[in-house]
Write a structure and sequence with these properties.
- It is a single chain.
- The chain has 271 residues and is of the alpha+beta class.
- It has two domains: 4-57 and 68-81 and 231-251, no CATH class; 88-226, no CATH class.
- Helix content is 23%, strand content 33%.
- It has helices at 4-28, 232-267, and strands at residues 38-44, 47-53, 64-71, 74-81, 88-90, 97-101, 104-108, 114-117, 123-124, 130-131, 137-138, 161-163, 168-172, 177-182, 185-188, 194-196, 201-204, 212-214, 218-222, 224-226.
- Strands 7, 8, 11, 15, 16, 17 and 18 form a seven-stranded antiparallel β-sheet that branches. The chain has a three-stranded antiparallel β-sheet with strand order 12-13-14, with no helix packed on it. A two-stranded antiparallel sheet has the order 1-4.
- Helix 1 packs antiparallel against helix 2 (232-267).
- The longest helix is centred in the last third of the chain and has 36 residues, at 232-267.
- The protein starts with a helix and ends with a helix.
């Protein structure tokens, strides 16, 4: 037998477990470049009406008056990500890029899957393509892989690469400047419905409802990366609060179970 209070407490405990997992993931990625912290949105499952019977009119208490509602617990409605700006840290690596403002880098994995990321820690692979640490191609404004061939461009080193605040890639030669591709920076109108795709990558849950847009309010900083926007102190405080809340509900469940056992024992006839 389970009482309404025990049911609500059990749902609350499950919510705390899920919330603890989210906080643990935030803490684990505190040093992940471009990572965006996540949190849970809870919703009230349903309410039940509380009624007061009129004992003076009918011995069977058929007459009753509604006195209000009581919640039967809450559950997880949605996992949301906070896309606030992380700190920009200088690395002096010409292939490290950070976005200040809105937008994401658009990347394509080897199996063709499109994702969006704020992790601008890039490198050049053995096919002279600009790629992420996982090997995904970084795409330009025309959705093409970005090619930077050191030998063909007669570059002395990657230090000759200049990437402007708008994402235009330029090669500085001794007597001239050669313009290459422009890195694509994209944004979304409704970031609330972006889902995590691993490795600080995201994609829209429904591309038709929430299509990619060309980002406008951004600046690219070459030689920098954006750190995680996770605040370690706040996450630790959140984990402590979750632990205390779970412990409180656990004690309530034990007390309710003990009371039910006592009531059943009292009501059982002696053999």
């Amino acid at each position: 037998m389970i009482t309404p209070g025990m049911y609500a407490a059990a749902k609350g405990m499950l919510g705390y477990i899920e919330q603890n997992d989210v906080i643990a993931n935030n803490i684990a990625n505190v040093n992940t470049t471009g990572f965006k912290k996540s949190s849970l949105v809870f919703k009230n499952l349903y309410n039940t009406m509380v009624e007061q019977t009129d004992r003076t009119q009918n011995p069977k208490y058929r007459e009753s008056e509604a006195v209000g509602e009581i919640s039967m617990g809450s559950g997880v409605q949605q996992l949301v990500h906070e896309f606030s700006q992380g700190n920009l840290v200088k690395t002096d690596n010409p292939l490290d890029l950070a976005i200040q403002g809105d937008g994401f880098f658009k990347v394509r994995s080897q199996d063709g899957q499109i994702s969006y990321t704020r992790n601008g820690s890039f490198m050049i692979n053995n096919r002279n393509q600009l790629v992420t640490e996982e090997g995904d191609n970084v795409l330009d404004v025309l959705n093409r892989p970005i090619i930077i061939n050191l030998n063909e461009l007669q570059m002395r080193s990657y230090r000759d690469i200049n990437i402007t605040e708008t994402g235009q890639i330029e090669i500085n030669h001794e007597d001239n400047k050669e313009v290459l591709q422009t890195i694509g920076i994209y944004d979304f109108q409704d970031k609330e419905f972006m889902q995590w795709n691993g490795h600080a990558k995201f994609r829209p849950q429904d591309p038709e409802y929430n299509p990619e847009l060309k980002a406008e309010k951004f600046l690219i900083q070459q030689g920098s990366i954006e750190t995680s926007n996770t605040n370690l102190v706040n996450e630790m405080i959140g984990m402590i609060n979750v632990s205390r809340g779970y412990e409180t509900l656990s004690k309530f469940m034990k007390e309710q179970s003990s009371m039910l056992s006592t009531a059943i024992g009292v009501g059982r006839p002696n053999s």
